[in-house]
Amino acid sequence: IFKFLGAISVDLGKDRIKPYLPTILTPLYRELNSTYAEQDPTLKNLSQEIIELLKKLVGLEAFSLAFSSVQKQANQKRAMRKKQRALQTVANPDIAARRKLKRHKNKAETRKRKIEFLRPMYKAKRPRSHALKDLAMVE
C-alpha cells in the first residue's frame, strides 16, 4: 500500500496531490511512530522513503503544514482515547477492575517467562489448570 501511495503521488503531480496529502501521510506517520515489538523495519524504511519523496515533490512548506496537521490529529485521538479510558474507570469500576487484574496477570506471566529465559535451570511456578473453573462464565 505504501508503494501504491508513492506511485499515486508521483503520478498525480505537485498541484493535484496537495488536497490528498494529509490522507496519504496518515498511514505513513502511523508507521513511523508505532511502538510495536514485532515491527517490520522494511516498512519503516519504506515509509521514510515515501515521506522524503513527498517532501521533494510538494515542497517543504506544504509538506510541513500537512504533516503537522496529521501529527496534531493523531495526538488528539490519543488524548481522547486516554480520557475515555479514565472516564470508563470511574463509570464502570467492575470493567476497570477486570482489566487491571488481567494486566497484573499478564505482567506476572511475563516476569516468569523472563526468569525462565535468564535462568533455564529455574522453573517458575505456573498456575494449575482448572478445566471446569476456566470454562465457567464469569460475571
Automatic annotation (TrEMBL):
The gene is Utp20. The lineage of its organism: Eukaryota, Metazoa, Chordata, Craniata, Vertebrata. This is UTP20 protein. Residues 1-116 form the U3 small nucleolar RNA-associated protein 20 C-terminal domain. It comes from Nyctibius grandis (Great potoo). It comes from the Eukaryota. InterPro entries: SSU_processome_comp_20, UTP20_C. Pfam families: UTP20_C (PF23099). One of its GO terms (cellular component) is 90S preribosome.
